[in-house]
Amino acid sequence: MSSLRIVVMGTGPFAVPMFRSLVASPHEIVAVVTRPDRAPPGRTPPPNPMREAATAAGIGILDPERVNEPTVVASLAALRPDLFVVCDYGQLLSRDLLAVPPLGGINLHGSLLPRHRGAAPVQWAIREGDPMSGVSVIHMTPALDAGNVIVARETAVGPRETSAELEPRLAELGAGAVLDAVDRMQAAVASGGSAEGIGIPQDAARATRAPRLSKQDGLVDWSQPAATIERLRRALEPWPRLTTFFTRGDGQRQRLVLDDVEVVDAPGGMPGTVLDTADGRIVVACGGGTALAITRLVPEGRRGMAAADYLRGSPLAAGAILG
Known about the structure:
Blueprint: E1 5-10, H1 16-23, E2 28-33, H2 49-57, E3 61-62, H3 70-78, E4 83-87, H4 95-98, E5 105-109, H5 121-127, E6 132-139, E7 149-156, H6 163-190, H7 226-235, E8 243-247, E9 253-264, E10 274-276, E11 282-285, E12 291-299, E13 305-306, H8 307-312
Parallel strand pairs: 1-2, 1-4, 2-3, 4-5
Antiparallel strand pairs: 5-6, 6-7, 8-9, 9-12, 10-11, 11-12, 12-13
Helix pairs in contact: 1-2, 1-6, 5-7
């Protein structure tokens, strides 16, 4: 079995490097399954990176609303795939669907499983302060991110790295990991083994969850330690971003997106209190007697700017309360 017939399932940008590596491999990509384009009437659907990549490669596209519907399962079975390769798709695959290819399905996940099972592993790795992150290629089961780990590759998380910077690095790391996993599956089957037995079982007791983040997650809780807020700022780039509010003396409230922050040594105070605005920084008291300096921000209705530029035209001063 030197060349496999593969169906790739994916939607977001994390899947694109893996898809391109498979297109360049000896294997045949017989179809791409992606999520359907959705948008309110009169609005343009959001970008679908996998749809764009498949179109550029000349690969046929399926975009069912529910991939586990019997008619969809039959359509995929008619393609006679040997393997499903799934990444950043957005739907769980049923047992019946996973039974279609003889080798089942593998999934590329953006964490070192069983840590950070779920839809936002990159964001949670930074939010939790993990010094190392990585990718895992698992043999798929109907349970979320719970199958045997066939290949895992790790990389250090930079001390100032954001999700927007780490995610594309992991996607490139995953491209090679998927090819390695496919080779291992082929070798195991060729020697008389089974695809299901490949890899190392996950320790469920060590599993953590990484659910999708919401806009509400971006609201600063100044009672948290400064280091926790700084990590959250990096985790929430490029969306939903870290946000707080400043109420002016006239009662008008202004939303501030925190574009860059750093932990600093400063006298403690009530969390959310502006301690100092000298040196072009907005130093804010945080929980546990810690402090955070806002160095760049995006005021509501304006472009991003240095904190020093914002302070020149703002009444914000020491003693103001954010939140």
